[in-house]
Amino acid sequence: MKDIKRIMLTGGPCSGKTTALAKIGEFAFSGCSGLTSITLPNSVTRIGWKAFDGCDELKSVTLPRSLNKIGVEAFPEWTEIISK
Known about the structure:
This protein is mostly beta strands. It is built from no helices and 8 strands. It is globular.
C-alpha cells in the first residue's frame, strides 16, 4: 500500500442499501508511507488506534465535525495542523 497517495472516503449505496462509514479501524492505513492526503466523510465518528501509523508523508487531513474520538497514536508521525 506504499503507492497510495490520496484517499477520499465517501458514504454511499452498497448492494442497494445506504451505508455510512462510521469508524476508521485500528491500523487501517498503517504503513501507507506514500499517503499525502485524506478526507473523511461526515459519517465518521471514530478513528482507531494507530490508524495512520507509518504515514510519514501525510500533509493534509480533513476531519468531519461528527468525529468524537481519535485513538491513541492515530497519527503518530504527524505533528502539523489537522483541519476540522
